[in-house]
Amino acid sequence: MGRFLAWIRDRSQPRSKVREYAEAIAIAVVLALLIRTYVVQAYKIPSGSMLETLQIGDHLLVNKFLYGIPVPFTHERILPLRNVQQGDVIVFKYPEDETKDFIKRVVGVPGDTIEIVNKTVYVNGKPYHIPSEQHTDPLIYPADLQPRDNLGRFTVPPDSYFVMGDNRDHSLDSRFWGFVRTAEIQGKAVVIYWSWDGQDGRVRFGRIGRMIH
Q1: What residues are paired with 194 via a beta bridge?
Q2: Residue 189 placed within a domain
Q3: Does residue 211 sit in helix, strand or coil?
Q4: Domain, as residue range, for 130
Q5: Which of the 8 DSSP states describes residue 78?
Q6: Residues in a beta bridge with 63
Q7: Residue 94 domain-assigned?
Q8: What's the CATH number where 158 sits?
Q9: Which is the most buried residue in 2, 31, 120, 169, by most CB within 10 A?
Q10: pTM for the full predicted model
Q11: pLDDT tens digit string along 64-97?
């Protein structure tokens, strides 16, 4: 009982400003880390692989809990709200260098059959077109030269996803380096919260608040 009363007295003593600031900063850092790890993360678009959907200089918020909360030090996720779906724009660790984050659109989910013929993507035998895709290079490369425009039929394996950039002729994606594993996915891109045109040095106010589809 004496120790408890002593603890009460100690807690009632005025704390120094330095200690208060230190505690506030520590709490803020912990909360920021938890939010960044499990809830939402900011991401900046560095390249034009997702044009015109996403512009260089767009700043996004990424939902990190939609596909499940990552379990530290494992490849497991718990309590997913839903699975990754075709058409989702996802941020993931680049399979060939996990220090880098990439952003692409999911084209094929586990079990889907994919084929690319003269730039047209076929999923399960049907053409897969989206309004936001673009082709700016009229050249069509044969499959034996490179896989950008022609890719033989294959099936997406379990726990894997086939992803492509909307700027189809200028995107380093699954056509070149393979599949994205579930464990590499960071989350789903949700909204543009800031957009800065680095060339013109201006804010793109019309893009702020735009949902990502």
Answers
A1: 59
A2: yes
A3: strand
A4: 41-207
A5: E
A6: 40, 188
A7: yes
A8: 2.10.109.10
A9: 169
A10: 0.84
A11: 999 998 777 777 888 889 999 999 999 999 999 9
Is the pLDDT at 123 greater than 80, yes or no? yes
pLDDT of residue 45: 95
d(CA 67, CA 27): 27
165 touches 56 (CB < 8 A)? no
Q: Among the options 49, 160, 174, 195, which is catalytic?
A: 49
Query: Across the chain, how many H-helices and E-strands are there?
Result: 3, 14
| Rounded-to-integer distance, Cα 72 and Cα 38, Å | 10
Q: In this structure, are residues 195 and 203 in contact, taking their beta carbons and an 8 Å threshold?
A: yes
- φ, ψ dihedrals at 67, nearest 5°: -90, 10
What is d(CA 144, CA 113) in angstroms, rounded to the nearest whole number? 20
111: its two tokens? 């079990």
Q: CA-to-CA distance for 186 and 36, rounded, in angstroms? A: 10
Is 171 tagged catalytic? Answer: no
- What is the token pair recorded at 119? 């730039």
| 195 pLDDT more than 90 | yes
Please report whether residue 2 resides in a domain: no
Query: CA 10, CA 17: separation in Å to the nearest integer?
Result: 16
Spatial CB neighbours of 122, under 8 Å, sequence gap ≥ 6: 113, 114, 115, 116, 128
Whether the bond into 133 is cis, omega within 30 of 0: no
In the set 16, 64, 100, 104, the catalytic residue is 104
Tokens of 148: 């950008």
